[in-house]
Amino acid sequence: MEIEQIKVGPMANLCYVLWEEGGGAVVIDPAWQPEAVDGFLSVKGLRPELLLLTHGHPDHANAASYFMKKYGGLALTLHSADAFLLDAGMEPVRFVGDGEELSAGRIRIRTLHTPGHTPGSVSYLAGGAVFTGDTLFVGQCGRADLPGSDPRELRRSLLKLAELPPDTAVYPGHSYNGSRSTIGAQKERNIFMKLAARGEAEFVKAAV
Ligand SMILES: [Fe+2]
């Protein structure tokens, strides 16, 4: 599986295109500059079959309508607990839960419900990589003080991510301190991953 990371917008958001030679393309977190992402799809001759959101915040979703309009039949896929964050009229929508298998051609994706930043945050596992949205950044975790956030849930989600194989590549939703890491490196160096392992009280104190 190939991965293209495209930095978009004024908040260092990262949008992703996953594809397989010979079939299958996926767009994760379509936002800000749909023409940049769509230009990449055109150059590669790709038609997206899945449009995934790691969560419903507009800085990850504000170009979703562009892709749904251009590629008929493409449903915006997210966890139902984040539906309240979507703009009215964003349709069609497909809801996913935890542990679901999604496919696009030869690409296989497993959903991991990782709430805390938002109640419906999802990390997507595919081809030895995990796309963590605003749950886990390089050296940081997502904010837990927003409407719908829950620092206790965020801690549990970080612990869930920590169970993935250490060589799993981490692709975050913003490039705040870097744009790529591994689960093993984050367990070693990310203070929030360490605090999550130490206990709820310490984590919550640091995270909000
Ligand atoms: Fe967010």
Secondary structure topology:
Blueprint: E1 2-8, E2 13-19, E3 25-28, H1 34-44, E4 50-52, H2 58-61, H3 64-70, E5 76-79, E6 93-96, E7 101-104, E8 107-113, E9 122-126, E10 129-133, E11 136-137, E12 140-141, H4 151-162, E13 169-172, E14 181-182, H5 183-189, H6 191-198, H7 200-207
The chain binds fe (ii) ion.
The site of fe (ii) ion (FE2) has 4 residues, from loops.
Labels describing this entry:
208 residues, Metallo-beta-lactamase, Chain A, 6-stranded mixed β-sheet, 7 helices, globular, binds fe (ii) ion
Short description, anyone?
The protein has helices spanning 34-44, 58-61, 64-70, 151-162, 183-189, 191-198, 200-207, and strands at residues 2-8, 13-19, 25-28, 50-52, 76-79, 93-96, 101-104, 107-113, 122-126, 129-133, 136-137, 140-141, 169-172, 181-182. With 208 residues, the protein is an alpha/beta fold.
Tell me about this structure.
The protein is an alpha/beta fold and 208 residues long. It has a single domain, classed as Ribonuclease Z/Hydroxyacylglutathione hydrolase-like (Metallo-beta-lactamase, Chain A, 4-Layer Sandwich). Helices cover 27% and strands 29% of the residues. The chain is built from seven helices and 14 strands. It has a six-stranded mixed beta sheet with strand order 1-2-3-4-5-6. The chain has a six-stranded mixed beta sheet with strand order 7-8-9-10-13-14. Strands 11-12 form a two-stranded antiparallel sheet. Helix 4 packs across helix 6 and helix 6 runs antiparallel to helix 7. The longest helix is centred in the last third of the chain and has 12 residues. The chain is globular. The model has no long low-confidence stretch (mean pLDDT 96). Fe (ii) ion binds next to loops.
